[in-house]
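Researcher: Next entry in the queue.
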Amino acid sequence: MEMTETLFDNIINTAQDCVFWKDKDRRFVGVNQAFLDFYGFESADVLIGKNDEDMGWHSDPEPFKQDEERVLSGHSTYKVAGKCFIRGEERDIIASKRPIYENGEIVGLVGSFMDVTDVAKRQGQSDREQIMYTTEQLRKFSYFDKLLDDNPIDDMLDPLTGIISRKYAIGFARHLITENIPFTFVIVDLDNFKYINDNYGHHSGDVVLEEISRKLAEYIGEDGIAGRFGGDELLLINLKITEPADKKAFLEKMYTEADVLRTHIEVGEHNLFVTGTVGCASFPADAVSYEDLFSKIDKTLYHGKGQGRNCFVIYDEETHKDLDMKKLVKQGVYTNMNSLMVQLGLETGFENKLRSAMSLVQEQFHIADMYYVGRTGRMHSVIDSNINEDVRDIDGVIDDEILKVSNLEEISDTSPKLYKALRKHNIGSALIIRIGLNMQTDGYLVCADQRNSRLWQEDECGILYFIAKSLAAHIRLNKDSMPE
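Model: Structure for this entry, 484 residues:
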């Protein structure tokens, strides 16, 4: 039988192992669907013509390079262990490679690898490991029912959290699309998870992942599955809801009375308040392919992060179709600082400088206005000149350079005037920065959001801090003063 290109593609894309082929310079020529799914790519265009070092997904690329150079000299390798990064998480893999010949000459190599992280973890698993699904529960879904005939359930579960692993969760979503079964796909990105790991240890991070995974699995119940997408990203596939109103009710309950997100988790002596940012879209209402569906979920997720995290965003074609991922993925801090420096340098006078910075603050923070407070304790708006509020007790609430207020109730007792003024303008969260140098305070900047429980991010603090210090320097160099 003649092997046509279409037949080859069909065969290679049904393989569960990640398959790739490269030219003699170790540059990617092609990959199969399992490879794209593993790394979260929509197409192979992002890696064609590049090598592993260009992609930066190996913690130590040299052994991989030496391995492939050996293959290109005529040898084959079989199940060589290695490590790679996927969505910020280091994974264990084993890879096999062999040379490709044409007219007796080596023109490249073909290889395959499989993720064995879960197997490695299972070998060292402890008694505390949780299991959230039984064979009986999963057999209710035709996709898992068929798989369980030939595969143990342990292969399908994430070893830490006990929910469905990435590979099988994605496989389930693809199966539903193939069978034309409507569903809603939800991705949960835990907020500031790196902070938990860095400050309380990776064990604490594991406990948080286990607990949130348990809550998600219990919340979705028999309506679908909970899975781990990778690192600090979890997922839900809900077969019962696809209508916008139903999705809103489902997610609102998840953040409130169901106590899944915005929840307190006890880890040793610490009580951690854990939140998450959620993006979701539905098949076939929003997309008819997995790639398009995931792309739209990604947009909503980044949009939610840009809104301050700790929120959910449901994909809506009219609202989100024109969102540009390049703009959603924020520019680096250096780029923003450089842009601010140029903008501030072009203006003279305190208020003009502040207005010039406002456009970037609006774009990066997704807020409508910003406020400044002078030495007399009057709060003014950058946008609305009619706002003039008495907040003389602001000094009582901030004793450092910066104060993050996720909920205004935190300052109701210590600074009632500030609390009342912000409440008057429907403010729910605030980021307050001192304007001044050394021990001298000129005033304050107040970046405010109407949503409660906004989690202010480090890059947002950095931008506002830079603006405040630039204004303080301007006051001293130009013998200017803040408006009272």
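Model: The chain has a mean pLDDT of 86.
Researcher: Noted, moving on.
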